Amino acid sequence: MVNLKPLRLLRVFRQTLGLPPHAYLVQVRITQAKKLLARRISIAEVAAETGFTDQSHLHRHFKRVVGVTPGQYVKGFEQRIIA
Fold first, then answer.
1. Kind and range of the H or E element at 6?
2. Rounded to 5 degrees, what angle do the CA atoms 51, 65, 35 make?
3. Domains of the chain, each with CATH number or no CATH
4. How far apart are CA 39 and CA 27, in angstroms?
5. Average pLDDT, rounded, for the chain
6. Looking at residues 33-47, what average pLDDT do you find?
7. pLDDT by residue (tens digit) across 42-55?
């Protein structure tokens, strides 16, 4: 589609967006997961909706990117609404 060899495409992608394709995809999924969690959708449903294989897969990536687990994120979000 872009008429580039795979390695060249990876390099251009990283130079343009600052992340390799898989890391970018994880960022997009985490951003969507945060939106769904804010709507109080269950963590298991969020994992399925955002393309993670299961809840633990979401948990691992979410904690690495956001710094807290999805459950902690939901609790923190709920506390901000109450306050």
1. helix 6-17
2. 55
3. 21-82 (1.10.10.60)
4. 19
5. 93
6. 96
7. 999 999 999 999 99
